[in-house]
Structure formats: structure tokens, C-alpha cells
Amino acid sequence: MDKRKILIDTDTGSDDAVAMLLALRDPSVEVVAVTTVAGNVPLEQATKNALITIHMAGTYAPPVYQGLAKPICSQMQHAFGAHGKDGMGDIGLVPPADMQPKAEHAVDALMRILKQHPAGELELVTLGPTCNIGTLIMRAPDLVKKLRRITVMGGAWMEPGDYWVPPAESNIRNDVESANLILGCGVPVVMVPINVCRGDILTTEEEIEMLTASGPVGKFSVDCNRTLIGFNKQRWGRAVIDPADPVAMAVALCPDCVEEKKDCVMEFETRGRYTRGVMVYDYWNRAGKPINATLITKVSERRYKDYAYNLLRG
Q: Going by fewer Cβ within 10 Å, which terminus of the chain is more open, N or C?
């Protein structure tokens, strides 16, 4: 059976790390390359964290390429409060000395990789601000159309977003223009908003204990999220993990996890003083525009947790 080939673009914080573990440990998937971008943490730290995660996965080592350190048109807001100063819970992790990123810039690498693969063979999953992908679209729009699908962890649907950008969600807010470029690039886009990563999907205290005791991979998936667990204890009164990026990865790799979705016309607000980054969507397509996104509105708790925990235990 041929493996699905995916590209991962990440601002590697602690939930990105867990999402990467799922892809690297799923035997039906080949991660062709990992590209890094600033977001949860600055670019160099995001790259170190990607290398740490690949090492901890214990499977194989796809090449890692560094990308953009800032958005196209706005200021970057990091997420130290949720993920720690190092993005990985401040538990002192460092990549092995023999693991280094490639010298080639992420956008150049993506262009080269797309040229080398036939149309429809590669899929892209974005876990952070989409600066690299927006730049790629501007530089090589025809190459981007070779992608089979782009799955984006981003946006807030029917609720406020993140704590420091209440109307929006941080991946989108950090580079709204690039997110809109993705929506207009001509490739099927699956949008996984922050909403579906909460509620019953939360990793509970009991599940955290189970993963910690399950082996080095499960323990790492919890330990790197220690800052997030403490942050959630403070804001929600529960020591839980909200698995934003792992849910997006599960949507991309295990479609059975999706319980509800809506095809729609979508864009993100760019000009509002208070609403920059807000998701604007139209299920009914009153304007008669081409459908440009599939919005995930519900993920099955049981299917997601069966998929994710089976890969993380060990």
C-alpha cells in the first residue's frame, strides 16, 4: 500500500509537537519534509523544537527547513504564556547535536519538492502562521496547485479565539494576508478552527496520567505541554490539554475523525481594528462565489482519541 505523502509547516510549540508525533508514527503516512515558521516561538526555537520532536518520535527523520521569521504585513505575537519560553514547557529539551536543519530556505525547498512530485501526490498540513505558504503562493502559484489538499489549523468559528486576540485565533491573526492567499490558491482547503479542539476533545487529567505512564513518546507528549496544562488550570480550573494542532493533524490523516463539516465561502477580515483575523464564512453562498473551504465543525471524541492515543502510547 502506498503511503500518503505530506508536508508539515509548523511554528513548533508543544501542541505542534504532538501533531508531528502523530504523522511521524502513523505507518500509513510519509512526512516528506518539515518547514518551520515563527509563531508560538521565534523561528530558531521553532526549528529546534521540530528537531527535538523528530528525535523523540523514534521513527525516521524527514528534512527540516527554516522559513520566515515574521509575517508579510503584520507584527508577530508569540505564545510564551501557553507554551513556555522555549515553546516546549521549559523542561530543558535540546535537539541532538547531530540533528540540524538544512541550509535551503523553506520556501525554496517547497518549490523544489513540488517540482519533483506529480500533481496530487503531496498534501500540506499547516500548524502555525501561514507566512511560508503565503510567500510560496506569491512566488509559485502554479506549483502550489499541484497539492492535493491543504489542511489549516486556524480560525475561530462561532466563538472568540485565543486569549490575547479575543475576536480571532492566533495562527490566522499573525498573518491574515497569507491565510487569505491560501483560501484563493485554487487547492481544496480544509479549515480546522480552534473550537473543535476543545470541549470533549480535551485531553483529561486521567488521559494525561495514562499517556505519561505509557512510555517515552507518551511521556514526552505530556511533558512538553506542562506549561499549557498549567495555563489551562489557571483559565479553566482544569489541568487539561487543548489539542489544537493534533486535532488538525488527525482531521488530515484520519478523515473518519470528522463528524460534521460545511463547505462554504470563507475569508478572513484584514482591516478591522478589533476584528483583524476574524473568520467570515457563508454556508449559503448568497453572493454566488466559488466554494473555497471546507470548515470542520465537529470532531468525534472517540475516533480522535482512539487514533491519537494509539499512536502516542509507547
A: N
